[in-house]
Specification:
It is a single chain. The protein is mainly α. The protein has one domain. Strands 1-2 form a two-stranded antiparallel sheet. It starts with a helix and ends with a strand.
């Protein structure tokens, strides 16, 4: 049970990395240093004072950068691979009770995958916002993403199973929508000349 909870916690924090790369790492560092979070062996450095300072500065710079017009797109270019790496790292730092091979495989697939999924969604949303508002709506989007990263990180620490369950439901709904749309075809009704959608 403890191993399952550690996996869920790792996936949840990884998903939060998709919103903001450094916010979950900062929250993890704070929780570890205050004694509210036990890190996997080999990752105790995340709870040290130098790490806390580094993540604090990086978080501040990342948050500020997303409020500067057009700089946010540049940050998205850097954040996409960085979010996946951060997701893998934070997932590995949480997972306990299994062999290193299985642990890192799970961290790469589940942690990196969760971070990549959320990051990809934010990039597409930002692109749509830029196209429709000429970038004027991006500061609001940046605020929502920041709130999402903080809320996801805290929820992961408080209720580890919540975020992975939400991601599974989200993937199911997205898959259903994508496959449902691709399977829909229009057939012309010879009698009335109207088209009907068939699955």
């Amino acid at each position: 049970m403890e191993t399952l909870l550690s996996i869920c916690l790792g996936i949840g924090l990884s998903a939060a990395c998709g919103f903001r790369v450094f916010v979950p790492l900062l929250i993890t560092s704070v929780a570890a240093q205050s004694g509210h979070l036990a890190l996997a062996p080999g990752f105790q450095w995340l709870g040290t004072t130098p790490s806390l300072i580094t993540f604090s500065v990086a978080t501040g710079l990342e948050i500020a950068g997303y409020y500067i017009p057009w700089v946010d797109h540049f940050l998205d270019t850097l954040a996409s691979p960085a979010a996946i790496v951060a997701g893998i790292l934070v997932a590995a730092s949480m997972i306990t009770g299994m062999s290193p091979l299985l642990k890192w495989t799970l961290a790469i697939i589940a942690g990196g995958g969760a971070a990549g999924l959320v990051q990809g969604t934010t990039v597409m949303t930002r692109a749509a916002s830029t196209a429709t508002t000429a970038g004027l709506g991006n500061p609001l989007l940046a605020t929502v993403e920041l709130a999402g990263s903080i809320a996801t990180s805290i929820l992961s620490l408080a209720v580890p199973v919540f975020v992975p369950l939400f991601l599974v439901i989200l993937l199911f709904l997205l898959g259903r929508k994508l496959f449902g749309t691709s399977r829909t075809t229009k057939v012309l009704d010879p009698a009335g000349g109207k088209s009907t959608a068939l699955q």
